[in-house]
Specification:
Number of helices: 8
Strand content: 5-15%
Number of strands: 9
Radius of gyration: 18 Å
Structural class: alpha+beta
Order of helices and strands: EEHHHHHHEEEEEEHHE
Length: about 280
């Protein structure tokens, strides 16, 4: 799904840049699979159709000149005002099957098709920051999906030599991770960016939020040991980790959305997510 990139002097591969076509196709398939496992869950099935539309919308991302100096090559906070976002969103909505949409989603689609640039910037900025207005929540799902397309395609076009190793957040755009995956063979842990889908290696037993290495605990539902959450006593944050050996085929966004019962338990205990899932916008 992603291209493996070996950075100079790094023994364990640090960064994996996305392949947008494979990534969005795999995400759509995984959403449909977890929806079927839950008796045809309509919300997860809808997100599967949305992920399929993301794949179609990749063709609407224009070319750009990537930076040459090493660092974080992408400014996430600039994306809501990016002139290309409107075209990507229109392509995404055009590719989304209109039949069977939830009522709120169908109304949001109609509104977004006629949205003024300033309104789109507001909705996209709220989706990215987790501060959406209540009336923007349904629209934020689509704006977040379009932001992901724009950021993921641009991440895929980067020269990896322009991406510096960093201590916290995504090395490409600075966004927090949506979740992590523990590989089945070497047991390495890779975190997935909540925006551009770049993956980076973070040693196990280290908080993805504050980098603490003490006070970490692990939690899972009794019937699902393949989906665990790492909680941190220092920052009260948590990150879900999907074990590919116990939960084959996991995709961070789809499996995160399919394990909301774990979020409820952790939230009741006073823990907060390290990073968002842009398919699941929250009101600020």
């Amino acid at each position: 799904m992603n291209t493996l990139v070996q950075l100079p002097g790094v023994e364990i591969p640090y960064l994996r840049l996305p392949d947008p076509g494979l990534l969005f196709a795999g995400r759509a398939a995984r959403f449909q699979a977890v929806a079927a496992e839950r008796g045809g869950d309509p919300f997860l099935a809808f997100l599967g159709r949305l992920a399929g539309a993301q794949r179609a919308a990749t063709a609407a991302v224009p070319g750009f000149v990537p930076p040459r100096a090493p660092g974080r090559p992408m400014d996430r906070d600039a994306l809501p005002a990016d002139p290309a976002l409107g075209a990507v969103l229109r392509a995404l909505l055009a590719a989304l099957p209109a039949d069977g949409l939830p009522d709120a989603a169908a109304e949001a689609v109609r509104g977004l098709r006629d949205a003024a640039p300033e309104a789109l910037r507001r909705i996209a900025a709220g989706a990215l920051a987790g501060t959406s207005r209540g009336e923007d929540l349904a629209a934020a799902t689509f704006a977040g999906a379009a932001l992901q397309v724009l950021a993921t395609v641009r991440a895929a076009r980067l020269d990896p030599s322009t991406v510096a190793r960093v201590e916290g957040g995504c090395p490409v755009c600075g966004s927090p991770p949506v979740a992590g995956v523990v590989q089945g063979d070497d047991r390495l842990r890779y975190l997935t960016c909540s925006l551009c889908a770049a993956e980076w290696h973070l040693p196990r037993i280290r908080c993805a939020g504050c980098q603490a290495t003490a006070g970490l605990a692990y939690h899972h539902l009794e019937n699902d040991p393949g989906a665990r959450a790492e909680t941190c006593a220092a920052c009260q944050g948590y990150l879900k980790l999907f074990d590919l050996e116990k939960r084959p085929g996991s995709e961070p966004f789809a499996d995160d959305a399919a394990t909301l019962a774990l979020d409820l338990l952790l939230g009741e205990a006073g823990n907060g997510r390290v990073g968002p899932n842009l398919f699941l916008p929250v009101a600020g």
